[in-house]
Write a structure and sequence with these properties.
alpha+beta, four-stranded antiparallel sheet, 20% helix, globular
Amino acid sequence: MSKKFPISNFKFPIALLSIIMLASCDPDASWTTKDVSIQISPYTVSAGFVECAFSPDKDAYYFVACEPARKGVNPMDNQKQFMTLALDSAYTEYIQWRYNLLKDGEFNIAPFASHCLQYGKIDKFFTNLKPNTDYWIFAFVVDPEKSQPVGKLFIETVKTTAESIMDVHFDYRVRGIWDYIYPLDPDNKINSKLPYLASTVDSATLTDIWGGISPEDYFNDLFITISEIHDESSIHYGVTVVKNDGSGTSIPFEVNHTYYTAIVSHDGFMGNNVIYKFTWTGEDFEAYFTDEDNIAIFREDE
């Protein structure tokens, strides 16, 4: 049984936040619900994720999702029920998200259409998928004022691969209070498609709070927890840059403290595991780590 970890110290990729904001819908944009067709084009399929393009032929708000295909069920047989159920599920999650923000004192909260619906042509990653499994990727038009599905269901079935199609290793740089993660292909070029998880912990935290747990066990349980709760906000793509000053979700680097940074691919399984260890000596500290510096020995049975 894995421990339930807080994820407040998880690195949040700045680039992903920008993608989420750009993908949100403009509530003042022109839109229609009449005779809209949506083309679904999966173009990268691996063991744990699918990258897919969605192209509506008119300006419209629409909903997209991916879920495991169910044997003996054909969503096209009862499209209205299928679409309503999917939208109701998204709305339930939205209400909980909005409730938590209101409880924390936030006032400027995106409406359902901006938060959950798409607009225009988009590319989207569906992550946390299982290897060698059939999935439905679907889309349908939504009336943003009534939050109701309109028209027909558009759906494609894809099967994830048995193993990851990505050959990636992770280099890591610390420069002052900034750190950088580089997912690199065999030609040492940045891979921006592979989903991965990353986190940094102070060795004092492992001793004082977690009773001397090893870095391997700490990160193993942390990453399993992230996978179990399907926390998409913790998934990185491409280069990740974090300012470790205690702002946002970062932890503040402290002089002469020893830190561990773990990085794992999240593509059907947790692979390419690395843990890099360093002792931070101040704002002039600089170090670069490659696979040769990896100290990780992850449990193979997890």
